[in-house]
Amino acid sequence: MVKSFDLRHPIIVLFLCISMLSNAQVNSPFSISISYFGEMITHPGLKLSFNFSLKHWEKGQNMESIYFSISAGTFLHRQYQKGLFIIPELNYGRQLSNRDFVTTGIGFGSLHAIVPNTYELDPISGEVSKVRTSHNYFLSGCSFSYGKEVMQNKKISNNVFIRPSFMYAFPNFPKGIGYINMELGSTFNKTENE
User: Which pLDDT tens digit goes with each residue over 122-171?
Assistant: First the structure.
């Protein structure tokens, strides 16, 4: 629950991103990515990204592009926290001539963390009760990915990728905390030559 207007809350970040895109009237190639998101590699989660091409050009036999992504994800670390994050990202990608591609990106967003097994002591009665505790953090991140196009027809193309990433949430104990993540996923692109 948002107790006050807090720019660190993921729902507010998502609303701001959608507002920016609707005002920009984006008419660019669009793709969707879905992936397994492993926080600290082994704590399971999912990530969904909406990708908007801003600019693309040919360089030799390679295609290069700059694109903007809005990503929403979740992960479960049973003894530590459940996380929900929204992170807008700016990415640079290079499609190689052999259908492989590499990308790198940077983003800033927010993380909402729900902490399990939290207890509170009532100062008057002395009773201990279980409470739901959650926190909002600013989030920064960077990533690198490698992938390959596995299918293309007249309407859609499909890529698979692996993406290691690093996220840093702040303010957190004591100043901030880093997360090393691994994504395995697929991107679906609408082809331009229908």
Answer: 889 888 888 888 888 999 999 999 999 888 777 788 899 999 999 999 98
Cα–Cα distance between 33 and 19 in angstroms, integer?
Answer: 21
Is the CB of residue 43 less than 8 Å from the CB of residue 77? yes
Q: Cα(first)–Cα(last) distance of the chain, in Å? A: 45
Q: How far is CA 139 from the centre of its chain?
A: 10
Residue 157 pairs in a beta bridge with 152, 189
| Beta carbons within 10 angstroms of residue 181's beta carbon | 21
Burial class for 12, CB neighbours closer than 10 Å (0-12, 13-18, 19+): middle
Domains annotated for the chain, with CATH where assigned, are 31-189 (2.40.160.20)
In three-state secondary structure terms, 78 is: coil
Distances (CA, A) of 64 to 32, 88, 102, 169, 192: 18, 20, 10, 31, 16
Q: Is the distance from CB of 152 to CB of 1 less than 8 angstroms?
A: no
CB 93 within 8 A of CB 101: yes
